[in-house]
Design brief:
8 helices, mainly alpha, globular, 167 residues
């Protein structure tokens, strides 16, 4: 049983260090060597848990994704139509990219890398079917995936450009 706790603690340490380094330095400038040093883990432990820095990014995307729709739902409440949950979740993502350039870097990377983008699109398609399926019962989850495919490109485009008076 202690082994399972050790793995969980190691994983938690790595994720905490990565969040700190990604926010301080940006995704690209946070190097694996610094992550290993700060998390006090060996390269083999890191690779067994995450394979690479991209594996860490995927775990962080999963965590953020699981929480953003919940936060959006709590903001909009149950009395508003479901479209407000989706709009609020989208606004949360765009607002977060405006808070910190390194956070913007993380989001852009998540919407660029194949593994993280696939996760975002697949999970968002499920959520969109859940939210909008009763309004369009003829659409399948695949249809919602195709719709999400287009909107993910729009999201990445908006995230890549800081909000200015012109934009």
């Amino acid at each position: 049983m202690a082994r399972k706790n050790d793995v969980a603690n190691t994983e938690k340490r790595i994720l905490q260090v990565c969040v700190r380094l990604f926010l301080e330095k940006g995704y690209h400038k946070a190097v694996t060597g610094q992550i290993l040093k700060d998390a006090k883990v060996s390269c083999s432990s890191f690779q067994n848990l995450f394979t690479s820095k991209e594996g860490v990014l995927l775990e962080l995307v999963k965590f953020m994704y699981e929480n953003q729709f919940g936060v959006a739902g709590s903001i909009t409440g149950s009395e508003l139509p479901p479209v407000y949950v989706y709009a609020t979740e989208t606004a949360i993502q765009l607002t977060l990219t405006e808070l910190n350039e390194n956070l913007r870097d993380i989001y852009i990377e998540a919407y660029t890398r194949e593994s993280t983008l696939d996760y975002i699109q697949t999970e968002t398609a499920k959520k969109l079917k859940e939210i909008f399926g009763s309004y369009q019962p003829e659409l399948t989850e695949r249809d919602f995936y195709q719709l999400e495919f287009g909107t993910a490109g729009l999201m990445r485009g908006y995230m890549a450009n800081p909000c200015t008076e012109e934009f």
